[in-house]
Amino acid sequence: MTSRSCFRHLNNTRVGIVVPSLGEGIWLPVMLFRPILTSRKHFKAESTDIILTIMPKSGTTWLKALTFSIANRNVFSIDQSPLLTSNPHTLVPFLEYTVYPDLENPELENIPRPRIFSTHMHFKILPDSIRESGCRIIYICRNPLDQFVSHYHFILQNKIENDAVPLELDEVFDMFCQGIQPFGPFWDHMLGYWNAQLKNPQKLLFLKYEDLKQDVSSHVKQIAEFIGFPFSAEEENQGMLEQISRLCSFENLKNLKVNKSGYFIGSIKNSSFFRKGEVGDWINHLTPAMAERVNNLTETKFQSSGLVFKM
Ligand code: PAP
Q1: What positions does the domain Sulfotransferase occupy (predicted)?
Q2: pTM, whole model, 2 decimals?
């Protein structure tokens, strides 16, 4: 891979832009260049795998908790769920942060099936085997204003590089509008997966954070059907959809001891994955002019795609 010598400090994360071999114009944290290349070269998806794909701060933690619980509901009862003692990021590993940061061929054979992995990669830079095998992809996205605010708070809470000085919100916002944030540009990430699901809806389920907030149980049912583990009538009558929804709710997960303390990959506080969990919190942090700038950008980028957000 070659990369332009174009690095910026985004608060405390250095991001660098990646050029054509990995898909032009994708901004990645520098520390992830190598793990992403390694996973692209070595990861072999199986037809039973479930791959969760997400722009950061768009519902990763929630989708991991839900999918893990749905796929393993016959292995663990709700009151024995590993989610009660493990952060969702431990149960569903990231290809780039957890599986491939150090090893070319980590041991993935003994993981119980279905294996569930996650990644923040754009569709166009996914390992080929994910696109080409029969595995399923679930994508979740979130409106750009809440995603931006969520990410800004996350980087303030987690100092990843010691020498980096936090930027002001205005400057980070300006970079966001130019597409510069980890795994940005925001709009290209979404459009890649949106277009892929239009082409192959059996392969890719496209979800929105805001829709899940409105009615999580119906999405629990939809995810279960999509991954080939539909709920029986008996399970539905027993209230299994609602039990899983409650187990994975923001309030429940945030208040678990494991998520109030501890760290993910050494330096990221588990608690920082649970801030407010609301739709529309952007209004408390951004001016109307900022919102208008993003709305105009979104309209231009998504025009004629059919993709819209509830703010
Ligand atoms: P990641 O990409 O770094 O893993 P991710 O989980 O996608 O983060 O996003 C975190 C956001 O999801 C936070 O939003 P906020 O900053 O606006 O509050 C977090 O609060 C929210 N979140 C985490 N878990 C849940 C959940 N169970 N239900 C709803 N929202 C959640």
Answers
A1: 48-305
A2: 0.94
Please tell me the predicted confidence (pLDDT) of residue 71.
98
How many folded domains does the chain comprise? 1
pLDDT tens string 86-117: 999 999 999 999 999 988 889 999 999 999 99
**Residue 265 CA, ligand 1 centroid: distance in Å:** 17
| Helix, strand or coil, per DSSP, at residue 76 | coil
Q: What range defines the domain where residue 184 resides?
A: 3-301
- 4/16 Cα distance (integer angstroms): 8
Q: Which atom of ligand 1 is found nearest the CA of 60?
A: 7
Does residue 287 lie in a domain region? yes
Three-state DSSP class for 302?
A: helix
pLDDT at 5: 31
Measured in Å, residue 154 CA sits from the centre of ligand 1 at: 10
Each residue of 193-237: pLDDT tens digit? 999 999 999 999 999 999 999 999 999 999 999 999 999 999 999
With a 6 A CB cut-off, is 264 part of the ligand 1 pocket? no
* Chain segment 49-62, per-residue pLDDT in tens: 999 999 999 999 99
C-alpha 92 chain-centroid distance: 11
Instruction: Give the CATH number, domain containing residue 186.
Output: 3.40.50.300
Ligand 1 atom closest to the Cα of residue 154 is 16
42, 89, 120, 189: which one is catalytic?
120
Does 3 score more than 60 pLDDT? no
Ligand 1 lined by 249 (C-beta under 6 Å): yes
Identify whether 307 is part of a domain: no
Tell the residue number behind the tokens 């494991």, with chain if given.
Answer: 258
To the nearest whole percent, how much of the chain has pLDDT over 90? 78
Domain assignment present for residue 48? The answer is yes
Q: Is 70 exceeded by the pLDDT of residue 163?
A: no
In the annotation, is 120 catalytic? yes
Q: Is residue 29 part of a domain?
A: yes
Helix (H/G/I), strand (E/B), else coil: 218: helix
d(CA 246, CA 62): 11
Contact in structure between 258 and 270 (CB atoms under 8 Å): yes
Q: Is 277 in the pocket of ligand 1 (CB under 6 A)?
A: yes
